[in-house]
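Weekly modeling sync, notes
Attendees: S.R. (lead), two postdocs, one rotation student

Agenda item 3: backlog of single-chain predictions. S.R. asked that every request posted to the team notebook include the full sequence so nobody has to chase files. The rotation student volunteered to paste the first one in as an example of the format we agreed on. Action items at the bottom.

Example entry:
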Amino acid sequence: MERHITVPLSAETAAGLRAGDYVYLTGTIYTARDAAHKRMYEALERGERLPLELKDNVIYYMGPSPARDGRPIGSAGPTTASRMDKYAPALLDLGLRGMIGKGKRRQSVQDAIVRNSAVYFAAVGGAGALLSRSVIDSQVIAYEDLGTEAIRKLEVKDFPVIVVADAEGNDLYETAAEAYRTGYQGHGETK
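Predicted structure, as returned to the notebook:
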């Protein structure tokens, strides 16, 4: 199913998404990668306030290349999501509603997605230049010293993603692999 969604993302909207849905996000999302996640996690452990509101927001695991003239951002491709798996459950429990990256997630993240009616989206790796066309504004809002890993606030329009893990516990990487395997068995192929 193809969906056009405005972000921030409500719990009801996230709960209605299913693994395999094609989604176009419009509104505000945030970027954060490994170093920013580590800082946020350490701030939480010290009882400090985070530099962004997590409730109903979406974090895109991305560190852009420098912007070219007339563009708000350079290439904006996804980072491997598993690098944030240590931190993701705590952020989801604080209200983070969605994450965008590439690749599989640990079971602890899957469980936190279900527990919090959240969603994990995949963006197409290797298509950073194309993805950057959906970014209409980019501002560093925290951890500027981290350079490309600083937290950015992005305004996006029709940013293309695919639902990988939904609030019901479905995982597109698992269901697609199973469909591929069973499809070949149905044609007389052997493993």
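Discussion: group reviewed the output briefly. Residues 135 and 156 are 4 Å apart (CA to CA).
Action items: rotation student to repeat for the remaining queue; S.R. to check formatting next week.
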